[in-house]
């Protein structure tokens, strides 16, 4: 699967978002080291703060399908999902909470991740490492002094 295919999968996943409150649909596509693909999308709630982000939805699917330690590639795309295809010109990067969730998976995989961050229309893509997105992050290794 090419990077373009993974971005297309993320854009298509965004069309399955439940985002009536923000109107912003996000999709996340995660590929395993054996080529298995899972996707997730944001799912909002009338109690706004209980909404779930696309990345966390995708990570949960990845854990169930093949385990977080087997993640090989990740793409995220966000924009207007009200039409037949995801639209929008702005590149969507993972929010702070999702960066933290991705950091946990990165620890389990034993390596830094490159996240393909795409605009809704898929025209703009930024390839950003997780260590760039969350420098000096607090991960499992920071708990070594716990009792
Ligand atoms: N959202 C995601 O799903 N992932 C992100 O990384 C950024 C934000 C969702 C949350 C909310 O449903 C909508 O986008 C607007 O913030």
Give a description of the structure.
- It is built from four helices and five strands, in the order αββαβαββα.
- It is α+β, with helices and mostly antiparallel strands.
- The termini are far apart.
- Tetrahydrodeoxyuridine binds near residues 51, 94 and 98.
Question: What are the main properties of this structure?
Answer:
single chain, 147 residues, alpha+beta, Cytidine Deaminase, domain 2, five-stranded mixed sheet, 22% strand, binds tetrahydrodeoxyuridine
Question: Could you give a quick summary of the protein structure above?
Answer:
It contains four helices and five strands; from the N terminus they run H-E-E-H-E-H-E-E-H.
Overall pLDDT confidence: 97
CATH-wise, what's the superfamily? Cytidine Deaminase, domain 2
With helices defined by DSSP (H or I, 4 residues minimum), what is the helix count?
A: 4
Tally of strands: 5
Uncertain segments are none
What is the fold-level CATH name, i.e. the topology?
Cytidine Deaminase, domain 2
Distinct ligands: tetrahydrodeoxyuridine
Main sheet?
5 strands, mixed
Q: How does CATH name the architecture? A: 3-Layer(aba) Sandwich
Share in β-strands:
15-25%
Terminus-to-terminus distance: 44 Å
SSE order? HEEHEHEEH
